[in-house]
C-alpha cells in the first residue's frame, strides 16, 4: 500500500470502527486515541518519505490525471498533514478529560475522524476539483459536530454556518467550472 493513502484511509477506517463499536464512552475514547496515534505515525511516514524521495504522486485506481484522483505530497503538504495529526491527537487525548457524554453518544469521536480525513485529503489532493470534494467532507463533518448537542443556539449557529458555506461552495464550484472550461 502506498503511504500517501494512509492519512486518508486510517481516519476513515477509525470512523467506521467507531460507528460499529459499542456505545461505551471509554471504549470509544480509546479507539479514537488509537486511530489518532495511527494517523500521527502515518503522517510522519509521509513526511519522512517526502524528505527522502522528494515529491510523491499517486494516481488512485490507475486512472490518468484528468479522470482519476491524484494524491500529491511535497514538503509543505506533508508538514500540514503532520500538523493535522498532532491536532487530532490532542483532540483525541482531550476527550479523556471530558466530552459531554451526550455528544459522545451521537458519534462525536467518529465525526472527528471524518474531519481529520477531510483535512488530510485537502492537503494531499493533486487537483482543484478534489480539493472541493475534500472541503465538502470537512464542512459536513464540522457542521454535524457544531449541531451535535442540539441546543437552540447551536442549531442557529449551524444553520448560519451551512448557509454561508453553501454560498462559498457555490462560488468555489462555479470558479472551478470556469477555470476548467477556460484551460481545458
Offer a few descriptive terms.
184 residues; two-stranded antiparallel ribbon; 7 helices
Beta-strand proportion = 5-15%
Rg: 17 Å
The largest sheet is: 2 strands, antiparallel
Oligomer class? single chain
Number of helices: 7
Order of helices and strands: HHEEHHHHH
Helix content: over 70%
- The side-by-side strand order for the widest beta sheet comes to 1-2
Number of strands: 2
Q: Estimate the global geometry from the Cα principal axes.
A: flat
Alpha-beta classification = mainly alpha
Mean pLDDT: 90
**Cα separation of the termini:** 32 Å
Unreliable runs: none
Give the gist of this structure.
The chain has 184 residues and is mainly alpha-helical. The protein has helices at residues 6-20, 25-53, 75-94, 101-105, 108-124, 128-146, 152-183, and strands at residues 56-60, 69-73.
Write the layout of secondary structure elements.
Layout: H1 6-20, H2 25-53, E1 56-60, E2 69-73, H3 75-94, H4 101-105, H5 108-124, H6 128-146, H7 152-183
Antiparallel strand pairs: 1-2
Helix pairs in contact: 1-2, 1-5, 2-3, 3-5, 5-6, 6-7
Describe the protein:
The chain has 184 residues and is mostly helical. The chain is 74% helix and 5% strand. Strand 1 (56-60) and strand 2 (69-73) form a beta hairpin. Helix 2 (25-53) packs antiparallel against helix 3. The longest helix is centred in the C-terminal third of the chain and has 32 residues, at 152-183. The two termini are 32 Å apart. The model has no long low-confidence stretch (mean pLDDT 90).
